[in-house]
Amino acid sequence: PADAPWWTRAVVYQVYPRSFQDSDGDGIGDLGGVLQRLDHLADLGVDVVWLSPVYPSPQADNGYDISDYQDVDPLFGTLEQLDELVAGLHARGVKLVMDLVVNHTSDEHPWFVESRSSPDSPKRDWYWWRPPRAGLAPGDPGAEPTNWHGFFSGSTWELDEASGEYYLHLFDRRQPDLNWENPEVRQAVYAMMRWWLDRGVDGFRMDVINLISKDVGPDGELHDGPPLPGLPYGDATASVVCGPRIHEFLQEMHREVFTGRREQLLLVGETPGATVEDALLFTDPARGELDMVFQFEHVGLDFEGSKFHPRPLRMRDLKASFGRWQTGLADVGWNSLYWDNHDQPRAVSRFGDDSPRHRRDSATCLATLLHLHRGTPYVYQGEEIGMANFPFTDLAQFRDVESINHQVQAVAHGADPDEVFAALRRMSRDNARTPVQWDASPSAGFTTGTPWLEVNPDHAEWNAAAQRDDPASVLAHHRRLIALRHEDPVVALGSFTMLLPDHDQVYAFTRGLDGDTLLVVCNLGAEEQDLAGLLPETVGAEVVLGNLPEDDPAVLRPWEARVLRLP
Ligand code: TEU
Asked: Where's the Glycosyl hydrolase family 13 catalytic domain (predicted)?
């Protein structure tokens, strides 16, 4: 344990700068704003800040479409302010991890502009250019080189009229995929990464990093995927998720960029579709790839097929999923733990109960559950104060490219607009992107101008200022959970054992290290539970931390969470 990596004891906080704090009144958060809020982060006690993209970008996908990897967009500030942020965080003992988006660039990146300029361009092969399907002319229905459906709806191929060829974009058409088969692309990315590390940043959160290797057969061809039910497209998964050279690429990156500096850094990959087996390979320290990955299983249990077809979550599925990840990475590798990020609806609304009666208790209960697992917990801005989904009333309120593309395409394919709205209201990424609620003032202290996305009207009651000095608040509870991980080696390094796997409401597990055992029990529902009956060993155990004032030890109240030390 003494030689365990530093990040086993660490908690990471994600800043989505557009929605964190505005300092210049344009209604969009910026680096000046982050600099104003450093004390909030220090006070919470987090060890690392992951900063979502601030690079120059046309903002088609809020900065995940980058047109220059080595600068800061004027919308967010300057490179000097980024240096100030590194210094300001380091002065508080906090590291800064940058978002690394290298599966794709913006279509306005000079590399793509040059690549598009002519089939003879020396950069043509930096992206995925393909002629129309054999026998069809450019633009013909079905002429796309493969039948793949994109993450943001529609085909993954966009026709370039000038050359009559298509380019690949797994996300929006303004996010062309880089061709990692080309060694020049890889070297350009590695050089850029070294430049950031030399500037003092402490690692990378690597956007969809498991999509960078595409399955080109020996013939250099990309192949159709199996048809998707109800859509005129096929599933690209088998060709793009954890492709044949993914581990080779990551090991090469590791050698070229992290050699000699790995110990101090945090390398976390975002890996949609990765299985436990994939994650083992990514995070086995001996392989020299990544420290940990964000897996997507637990955020894929409350919908059918695609995220805009929601269905209720079954507790058993959640336990089975988390349980498998805990067991699968018990001896080798490491888990990232998250409920929320800028792509997911708010956890208290999704997994908890955001009604006035249960909001505080369910937010603190969920946090306890997450932070007591084995792995590195990630807190997404606003989660620490129990921010909830936005009460959308109209399709026109959505700003996110994924939501808008889905809306347009689903309706075009005959979906009922009311159903589309209901799904977006529940699942849209914009739920996570409303401005952070700092105080009860009209724009919640986020901006003096007009916020780019409406502030949640509940901010009058739910805000950081109201919670700062309240020991019963969601914020104070997060502070305690973070401190507990720092102090207690069982929380950081203990083994994990799931209890009551089939119970529909109580989520319980133990963590053990060197004969010391913590038992964690969470009531994920509104009915009281007979704790003494379910887990007799809890009777008489010391309460290390709870989310409600201590009362009858034999009973678990609605949304109550307790961390107990077994004798
Ligand atoms: O997300 C990738 C991803 O797989 C999903 O979370 C995606 O955002 C969507 O929810 C699928 O339904 C990453 C970034 O986190 C996201 O913000 C970007 O839009 C995306 O990559 C493209 O860069």
From this structure: 14-433
